[in-house]
Amino acid sequence: MLGGPSSLSPNKAQLSGLQTRLLDKSGGKTSSFKKHSLAMTLHHLGVLARDFEKTRKFYCERLGFTVESRALHPHDAGTEEAVFLDQANRRLVFHFYPRSHRGRPGLGGGTHLYLLSPGEKLAKLKGKRVIQFGQEYLATVDPDGLRLLVREGSRASLLGLAVISDSHSFWEQLFHIGETREKQEGRFFMGNDGAFLECVPPAPGALPSRLGFGSIHHLALTAVESEKRGLEKPTCFGVSRYFYSPCGLLYEIVDSSTSERLR
Length: 263
Prior knowledge:
Layout: H1 12-25, E1 41-49, H2 52-62, E2 66-72, E3 80-85, E4 91-96, E5 110-117, H3 119-122, E6 128-132, E7 135-141, E8 147-152, E9 157-164, H4 168-174, E10 183-184, E11 187-189, E12 196-200, E13 215-222, E14 231-235, E15 238-244, E16 250-255
Parallel strand pairs: 1-4, 5-8, 9-12, 13-16
Antiparallel strand pairs: 1-13, 2-3, 3-4, 5-9, 6-7, 7-8, 10-11, 11-12, 14-15, 15-16
């Protein structure tokens, strides 16, 4: 999970500088990527939001997630953080900034999430039925306007995310495409449980994404082993290292084997 300097307050200036500040802590340079020794699997997604209770009601009562933890962020004074756990042991980690501006999709930013939800809950959601990857989804939005594509499943689950990116070769290398992962219809599969990242081609002249409520802040992956590069910070999940993908998406490698000794 993201950890920012404790001197920051949760305002617009903070949001616009989150990624820059992370890089400044590591010398102002984006760490180069080296192929990881084991294939990556999806651990969590970091999402920016405004109100805990509205977010909880939507994701827990309407979709079937549970609140795993809720606390002030240990590295970001005044910012509340909540971890929502799905039934496949994947997480949505929300950082709440009540006074932030709205996020803007763009190059390197996430455009929408893919979720599963039990049929009895999905039937009560409002949205438009769409066909994606040969399957029917319900297109809807969360309380902060983040787009969601939800289809029926036996349990609530985070399936993946869509990112505006033309960095296909990077994702192929990161997810070991051709060795242990597959690529189908622009989707790069993470792990053996169906989680995926979809690359959406950028439009000509596409602007970079802007962080704000309703935006995806980072993608977090985990493996038993990870290269010791990038900005390293302790989190409740273990020791995390942060990198930038070529398209500008911040991603995190969680070394969950360290989580017990950090408690």
